[in-house]
Amino acid sequence: MTDTWRTCALTIGFLAGFSVLGDLPPPADADTGNAAGGPVVVVGHSTISLGEIPPYGITNRTFRLRNTSDQAVKIERLVSTCSCIKGTFSTNEIPPQGELSITASLNAALVHGAFRRGLWVRFTDPQVRAVGLSLTGITSTLFSGFPDDTLVITGVEPGLAVTNQFTLTALTTNATLGVPVVECADGVTLTYSLTTNRSDKTVYSLTTVLSAKAPLPRQSASLTFPVAGTASAANPMVIRFRLLTADALLTIPNQITLDPNAKQNQTVRLLLRSRTESLEAEHLTWDPLPEGVTFACSKVGRRKLSIAVSVTVTPQAAAALLKDEQNPHLLLLRYPKHKETTVSVVKIGTAPPAPARVPLTQRLSASADDDDARETPEQADN
């Protein structure tokens, strides 16, 4: 056997042992099956299926080991693949041609869904291979309606409430929901209403109301429900929220410059950009939109975070918009889940306003490889 093939064989053997017992790689001397190769073998199967079990309580199963040699074998220790499983035995010595029972105890509260967990039995004699024992199965679900992942709520305006409704159903008669514990980050308020169905007490109606006091970029909250009834040993049920406050549209430039003496229509190009989501031109609105002013939009960039806007103004509209030079006319732009932004209409030759200071965290959010971040209104037309 060449060195290359020997390395491949060792690697495959290692991965096979790893998959048998899950999280913990096997010892170098491991015997991952029930095949001959060491003096200690498993009587029957080295893997026991528990089927579907409740997500709480301790489940015990017993394995038997046989010493096929003429010498006594001593167990050094049991190594578990996780804290969810433990093993016990009455004596650490297996007599020649004798047997020994090992009990594996699984704490179902420490596993979730389908699982495969186990023990490695190691011996004091380095010539005796370690033996792997495993338990497999799946934990049942006590309630339906709980989100599997954190709920992300975008476009949260400071001070405005966001309401969500859930229908939670107990899938077993021995589990009920206790009074939830509310946890919120600073600046977040979470209230709830929890009621049961009059005709079916296993069905709960949950309404949550979230609000953010300050325009922080990311905020979180959670509801943790203890499980009551005979299933009270189960892990609590949790609903987690993440709030993303409304983003401001970045307008480049943030003013429309017009010539009040122009005899023809004037077209000014703007670039509108979001830091959080792809923009759809049909959702952009202007208020007010004076008579003689029209706009056309198109997407730009790979991530579609920007919209190129061409604003066309007639001579009559330009004269009306520039009538009061001391108080520039403002156009209000609105886009769902974003803060309102304004574009001022000024006379040609007017110095542009100083650029707003953008926090470092916001500047870094526009990655260097993002085409949208480097786009200009002129490039958007090409």
Describe the protein's architecture and organization:
The protein is mainly β. Helix content is 10%, strand content 47%.
Per CATH, the class of the largest domain reads: Mainly Beta
Counted up, domains total: 3
Radius of gyration equals: 34 Å
The structure class reads mainly beta
Binned, the helix content reads 10-25%
Poorly predicted regions are: 1-20, 32-36, 355-376
Q: Estimate the strand proportion.
A: over 45%
User: What's the architecture of the largest domain in CATH terms?
Assistant: Sandwich
Salient structural properties:
382 residues; Immunoglobulin-like; six-stranded mixed β-sheet; four-stranded antiparallel β-sheet; 30 strands; 10% helix; elongated
Short summary:
The chain is mostly beta strands and 382 residues long. The chain contains five helices and 30 strands.
Task: Describe the SSE topology.
Layout: H1 3-21, E1 30-31, E2 40-43, E3 47-53, E4 58-67, E5 73-80, E6 85-89, E7 93-94, E8 99-107, E9 114-123, E10 130-139, E11 143-144, E12 151-156, E13 162-170, E14 176-177, E15 181-184, E16 188-196, E17 203-212, E18 218-225, E19 227-228, E20 237-245, E21 247-248, E22 250-252, E23 255-258, E24 266-273, E25 285-287, E26 293-300, E27 306-313, H2 315-321, E28 329-334, E29 338-339, E30 341-347, H3 360-365, H4 371-374, H5 377-380
Parallel strand pairs: 1-10, 3-10, 12-20, 21-29, 23-30
Antiparallel strand pairs: 2-4, 4-8, 5-7, 5-9, 6-8, 9-10, 11-13, 13-17, 14-19, 15-18, 16-17, 18-20, 22-24, 24-27, 25-28, 26-27, 28-30
